[in-house]
Amino acid sequence: MKIKLISIAAILALTTGFTVSAFDTHNTETDVKKSAFKHGHKMKHHHKGKHHIVEIVRDYMLQQGDITQGEIDLQKLERETTRSELRALKKAGDTEGLAIKKAELKAKYEARKTAMKSYIDNHEELKTLIEEKKKEFRSKMKDRRKVRKEKREAKANDTSEN
Asked: What's the rounded Cα separation, in Å, for the pair 160 and 84?
């Protein structure tokens, strides 16, 4: 009885033009990235503005003379080598080495994070600059959400009229 009901439901779904997205292999993450790249969209990988804060702090430190451009370049090079090491460990299938490397990186990240927080706390001008950038970022995100909502509503109105 169950099999008959399932087969009837499947036949009805197929005849009415119902598509099942679970079996759709086109919209994988890499296809979306390729599609965005092909159409000129840049894929941004930042976490709600935190990447921008790091850049603001780095630029401020550079202006104050607390860090040099050579040190910034060295940090970027170190980050790239670390990423290639992680890729190599992953490709080799060394799960133990990968776990050790990730734990090491996590400890480094926590140390950098506390150092950055203390640096920000010691510089009031930097704090206000970051707050201004956060407000600006939030307003941009709010505007984007509003535009997307208006587009969805317009699209819904267009489909309801047809």
From this structure: 51
Helix (H/G/I), strand (E/B), else coil: 155: helix
The domain locations on the chain are 50-142
Reported pTM: 0.56
Contact of 134 with 49, CB cutoff 8 Å: yes
- Tokens, residue 155: 């699209």
Q: Which amino acid is at 29?
A: E
What pLDDT, in 10s, does the model give residues 13-72?
555 554 444 444 444 445 545 555 555 555 555 455 566 888 899 999 999 999 999 999
Q: Positive or negative, the Cα torsion across 93, 94, 96, 100?
A: negative
Q: Which of 63, 57, 58 is nearest to 131 (CA)?
A: 57
Q: How far apart are CA 52 and CA 58, in angstroms?
A: 10
Residue 110 CA to residue 115 CA, distance in Å, equals 9
Q: pLDDT by residue (tens digit) across 129-158?
A: 999 998 998 999 999 999 999 999 998 888
Token readout for 160 is 């309801």
